[in-house]
Amino acid sequence: MLIVMHHGATERDIEQVKKTIASLGLKPVAIPGAERTAIGVIGNQGWVDDSAFREIRAIREIIHVTKPYKLVSRDFHPADTVVKLSRSVRIGGKSPFLTIAGPCAIEGREQLFKTARFLKSLGVPVLRGGAYKPRTSPHSFQGLREEGLDLLDEVRRAVGILVVTEVMSPEHVEAVAGKSDILQIGARNMQNYDLLNEVGRINKPVILKRGLSATVEEWLASAEYILLGGNREVILCERGIRTFETATRNTADLSVIPLVKAASHLPVIFDPSHATGKRSLVPPMSLAAVVVGAHGLLVEVHPSPETALSDGPQSLHFREFERLLAELRSLEKFVGKQGLQK
Ligand code: PEP
Ligand code: MN
Q: Which partner for 312 in 130, 201, 308, 338 could form a disulfide, CB atoms 3.0-4.6 Å apart?
């Protein structure tokens, strides 16, 4: 429920509303906004009886929010959320477009350092790389796990680049958060609620990928778990969904980018690599994502995709990635005055 106050409402009126909310065993949340003073109500598990508020004359309107997500919605937070990744790197709102790139999996020191140095030389601020890999087959490479995390920690210090990596289980959240700058929740874990609750407790940005067969509502409800835990730094990532089509690995659902931007204040990025599964489709779909308003990209790049231990066919060669960055820059007019944060 959302309680909108009259323009002339005083601090005392607002206090009265908050007390009334608390007296019902619910929690008031401040809704920031220049145009209106509003108070959100959370903690209810169904319809809230609003009769206790009807006597309060300073209330202009009571809006019952029936969506399964509230804190994530524009109703509760009208302004864009800008997630701070470091002192100088931000994503969301009018921040410059952000490209995140790197291998699917961390395979060893040489592969990781080579990629990190290459990206750093191009000004790319964030390196991706999986230490814990959710693989369809247990016979496939499962990632270097703790050893991969140590390499990530080493590379970010040595090269001066931010790092993002996937966390697959609640028990690993603390360790992964200690050795990375951004945590990723993969498509297969989008509805792992214990994991969502656990990353909700930490103080690090989280990239939440859309589940393979998740609706937008389910995806946003998953993000709600993280915000409700207290972590407001969530970045949504569209990575393609399961459809009848087999010509591509997944079906890139670019329409959700403007759709989700209208429904939610959180930044939204696009992963053209998992969305298509094909290297040749990564550049055109990346450009399309910029045009439809994505705040950034998550792209797989590998020094030798032919020998990659996972997702080689969808990983760009260095020279292809460099060309893509140049093409992205030519779309500057779509990404606002500040241009691209490579
Ligand atoms: C990945 O980013 O390497 C990955 C496993 O992605 P997804 O969870 O989208 O399949
Ligand atoms: Mn991958």
A: 308
Between β-strands 126-128 and 38-42, what pairing exists: parallel, antiparallel or unpaired? unpaired
Beta bridge partners of 73: 264
Residue with CA nearest ligand 1 atom 9: 187
- Compute, in degrees rounded to 10, the torsion defined by CA atoms 129, 118, 179, 264: -60
Answer yes or no: are the C-beta atoms of 203 and 231 closer than 8 Å. yes
Closest ligand 1 atom to 186 CA = 8
Domain 2-63 CATH (choose: 3.40.50.2300, 3.60.60.10, 3.20.20.140, 3.30.70.1140): 3.30.70.1140
Q: Residue with the nearest Cα to atom 8 of ligand 1?
A: 186
Residue found by looking up tokens 């220049």 in the block: 34
Q: Which ligand is nearest to the CA of 310?
A: 2
Task: Please state the CATH superfamily assignment of the domain spanning residues 83-338 in this structure.
Answer: Aldolase class I (3.20.20.70)
Comparing CA positions, the residue from 232, 234, 191 lying closest to residue 213 is: 191
Task: Enter the DSSP assignment of 67.
Answer: S
- Around ligand 1, the residues with Cβ closer than 6 Å are 104, 130, 134, 186-188, 209, 239, 274
Which ligand places an atom closest to the C-alpha of 188? 1
pLDDT in tens, 148-188: 999 999 999 999 999 999 999 999 999 999 999 999 999 99
This prediction's pTM: 0.95
For residue range 300-312, list pLDDT tens digits in order. Answer: 999 999 999 999 9
